[in-house]
Amino acid sequence: MRIIIIGAGIGGTSAGIALKRLGHDVVIYDQMRENRPVGAALSLWSNGVKVLNWLGLGDEVAALGGRMDHMAYLDGHTGELLTRFSLAPVTTQTGQRPYPVARADLQALLMERFGLDDIRLGRRMVSLDEQDGRVTATFADGSTDTADLLLGADGARSITRDYVTQAEPRIERTYSGYTNFNGLVPVDSAIGPADHWTTYVAEGRRAAVMPVADDRFYFWFDIPQPAGLPYDRSDGKAPLLEAFGGWAPGVQALLAAIDPAVSLNRVEIWDIDPFHTWVRGRVAILGDAAHNTAPDIGQGACSALEDAFVLGIVFATNTVSVEDTLARYERARTERAGDLVLRARRRGDETHGYDPDVTRAWYDSLRGSDGAGIIRGIVGNIEGSPVNLGAGAL
Questions:
Q1: Which of 10, 52, 91, 285 is the most exposed place for a label (fewest CB within 10 A)?
Q2: Could you give the C-alpha distances from 11 to 367, 368, 382, in angstroms and in order?
Q3: Do residues 145 and 5 make contact, with C-beta atoms less than 8 angstroms apart?
Q4: Is the pTM of this model over 0.90?
Q5: Are 128 and 239 in contact (CB under 8 A)?
Q6: How far apart are CA 359 and CA 356, in angstroms?
Q7: GO molecular function terms here (predicted)?
Q8: Whole-angstrom Cα distance, residue 363 to residue 366?
Q9: Cβ neighbours of residue 217 under 8 Å, at least 6 residues apart?
């Protein structure tokens, strides 16, 4: 069977690998001209890593991942330690160590494993049409391609989603209330220990680092603010110096380490209300096209990997028709993916000071905590994953 995938991100390439392993003829199109992903890094929690293990990439992903053994929260103003605890229970209960990874490294690995000869870059899809059991994609350069089915992994502004959901009100994104700055810096103990996920919190803002491969920290800052504020690349880290200039010494060390010319991204955080129409005939969506999720629980990429896992399983085990198989994929995924969107939204509401009393209560709960509640939350996001085959966590 010939399959077109639109989008060479984490979801599109992982789905492509899964379907190629079943013997299908798969080609991926993407409008990007080179591997330049949005965002410096991502959290691969145990459910996402398990999908990559299933795809035969376990050793490579472990090599890309940072050794994140502990989590710590500190007061953003004073640097006082609020809590520090081991993340070993996550591994013990889920059966897999989580890994923070540089996004470009993971995407390059997935693209290479899929097969660079079957990836067409610089090709932006502008429309699609299905007739007589065939789907045709038309691209901005006037070219077309036709296949037995098309999967849209084309992101938060998905054209494929517009096609799939055209009988419903147009699906719009919702602003999450904050802007995220992120990038990569060398590991520095003045910022935090090399094996820790370290987060400084105050005033509804966060400054955090996670270890990734090659002795680097993935860093991010969250600033609650209105959408649409002007920012130019030449502004560099000026907004960070303004928002975090009076913070603790560890944050100052992080700010000093950032070279905007090397690694600094600014992203307004939006999500999409859960919806349950992911399929129309022989066209389906996955990843951010289906469940654009705020990063507050680190499950966006993991959820896209779960999509790829389920697509692989349903196409390996169902034989009635393409339409039937895609309907089973939709039924298996929409509820869980939507739940993760809402979990991330609730977490963001709690941590970003939209209700100061709620965020203050969260800060108070961190002080002296043994981390058990945080571990429960992390594992709770993982245990319902389809990759666990119904076994959940131990």
A1: 91
A2: 38, 39, 18
A3: no
A4: yes
A5: no
A6: 5
A7: FAD binding; FAD-dependent urate hydroxylase activity; urate oxidase activity
A8: 5
A9: 184, 185, 186, 187, 188, 191, 192, 209, 210, 211, 254
How do beta strands 144-147 and 81-86 pair?
unpaired
Report the 10 Å Cβ neighbour count for 265. Answer: 16
Secondary structure of residue 277 in the 3-state scheme: coil
Q: Provide CB contacts within 8 A for 188, sequence distance 6+.
A: 217, 253, 254, 257
- Residue 40 has a pLDDT of 86
Superfamily (CATH H level) for 2-173+271-388 = FAD/NAD(P)-binding domain (3.50.50.60)
Per-residue DSSP letters for 239-256?
A: HHHHHHTTS-HHHHHHHH
Q: Which tens digit of pLDDT belongs to each residue from 162-197?
A: 999 997 888 999 999 999 999 999 999 999 999 999
The encoded tokens of residue 371 equal 């981390």
Q: Tell me: the pLDDT tens digits for 73-121?
A: 999 999 999 999 999 999 999 999 999 999 999 999 999 999 999 999 9
